[in-house]
Amino acid sequence: VLRAFVDGDVTGPDDPLEHLRIVEIELALADLETVEKRLNQAIRASKLDKGLGDEIAALQAANDALSEGRPLYRANLKAEFQEQLAPHFLLTNRPVLVVVNVGENELDTIPAVEARVRAELNDAGANVEVIGMCVQLEAEAATIVDPVERAEMLEGFGLGEGALFRMVRSAYHLLGLRTFLTTGEKETRAWTFRAGSKAPECAGRIHTDLQRRFIRAEVIQWDELIALGSWKQAREMGKLRVEGKEYEFVDGDVTEFLHGA
């Protein structure tokens, strides 16, 4: 969480980029301590275990970046290095969700503040998402039990649905999670899958029998289905795509799986 408001009663920087630099240096130093310790251990052990070469290379690359105060999510490490480092649970070798906290009287600055922080983190690529919000207002809204009253409060400040839902969606996305849906006359259900999962694996999220006996999937995006009005209408108009075992589901797919007996 980065501070982007002025308050004499709160210590620390009120510029979000300055705050970001402090946080990143602290995280990088914490990771550097872990990496240096493991790197020294691995170098000693490599005299007897020649299979440690890949891990040592990854640790050395991490050590070089962290020694400069650069967090690993901004170091453009090779994918294989990131995988080698995963067992060490480093703080900066993971996706980052940045929340920029503005003052109650500075809500109109949120888009500009988000853009400024996002530009600073452009070298992190898809590893970072930035959300601006007023934490104080969001906290007050969260205490309102009545959802209608809560929505009216957020709407009154021009905050729409509020930042909480945006934050949850961003965290969900950064974790590599996506959603597909199934629908019928009685209910519509959402199912979570990991990005890159193929059709049989997604079918297995419902039941393992569907994965083992998968034949094909009929698929349409949720917004297109809503525009058409019903699954029956989509089928009659030939809007359902037929996908096989190699199809990678995408977020928002609505599907019906066809399987063997």
What spatial order of strands do you see in the largest sheet? Answer: 1-2-3
The major β-sheet equals:
3 strands, parallel
Distance between the termini: 52 Å
Principal-axes geometry comes out as: flat
* Helical stretch tally: 11
**Low-confidence segments:** none
* Named CATH architecture of the largest domain: Roll
Under CATH at level 1, the class of the largest domain stands as Alpha Beta
Instruction: State the CATH topology of the largest domain.
Output: Ubiquitin-like (UB roll)
The average pLDDT value, as a whole number, equals 92
| DSSP strand count | 8
Question: Percent helix among the residues?
Answer: 40-55%
Going by helix content, strand content and strand pairing, the class is: alpha/beta
Spell out the CATH superfamily of the largest domain. Answer: Beta-grasp domain
- Beta-strand portion reads 15-25%
Could you give the order of the helices and strands? EHHHEHEHHHEEHHEHHEE
Number of discrete domains: 3
Rg from Cα: 24 Å
